[in-house]
Design brief:
CATH topology of the domain at 62-188: Tetracycline Repressor, domain 2
Oligomer: single chain
CATH superfamily of the domain at 62-188: Tetracycline Repressor, domain 2
Shape: elongated
CATH architecture of the domain at 62-188: Orthogonal Bundle
Order of helices and strands: HHHHHHHHH
Largest sheet: none
Number of helices: 9
């Protein structure tokens, strides 16, 4: 008879996000997961099927949290430009951490060889782009932002800057330099 589960799967997935974010998929061993999640190897496989399946769940969890953060940063009344700047800073982790972004890191590590990673990454990038485009459209409608630029083009450019800033942050660039980069990108608005 199987023993009842003695851990919370949602909390375990949240912990797995941290492990995969810090180590990457390839460098995370099943033993690392067992040690850092505080569960047995049998529980790891019985509950999550495989390291890859847990990684997929962690990527989805991370994406959901990042999308919620993005919506919180961009929604509501007030000027759009500072909201876009704050959203870019949060997405890039500038001044918060030097881990980069789990999705960007995973896309760089596995995106061309792992269909699940490519799909989750593409979905997250589309969410970010859509959120930026909507904010830009709001800013253009109120006259705060230049209406001569296509909102979709500007949103894609901001997405590229966020992704690049993530990589630079992970590479150790100083937060002040990264902040200046984000400020320069806002010129396109």
């Amino acid at each position: 008879m199987a023993r009842p589960m003695t851990f919370d799967t949602d909390e375990t997935i949240d912990k797995a996000v941290e492990v995969f974010w810090r180590r990457g998929f390839g460098a995370t061993t099943p033993q690392n997961l067992v040690d850092e999640l505080g569960i047995g190897k049998g529980s790891l496989y019985n509950t999550f099927k495989s390291k890859h399946h847990l990684f997929r769940l962690a990527m989805h969890r991370y994406s959901a949290h990042r999308a919620a953060d993005l919506a919180e940063a961009l929604d509501g009344p007030g000027p759009v430009r500072p909201k876009v700047r704050a959203a870019m800073q949060r997405l890039a982790g500038v001044g918060q951490h030097d881990l980069g972004c789990l999705i960007v890191n995973s896309a760089a590590e596995l995106g061309s060889s792992d269909a699940v990673v490519a799909e989750v990454s593409q979905q997250m990038f589309e969410r970010i782009e859509d959120a930026f485009r909507s904010a830009i459209e709001r800013g253009q409608a109120t006259g705060e932002l230049t209406s001569g630029r296509d909102p979709g083009d500007a949103a894609r450019a901001l997405l590229a800057v966020v992704i690049g800033t993530n990589v630079l942050a992970k590479g150790g660039r100083p937060p002040a330099e990264l902040g200046s980069l984000l400020d320069a990108a806002l010129v396109i608005l």
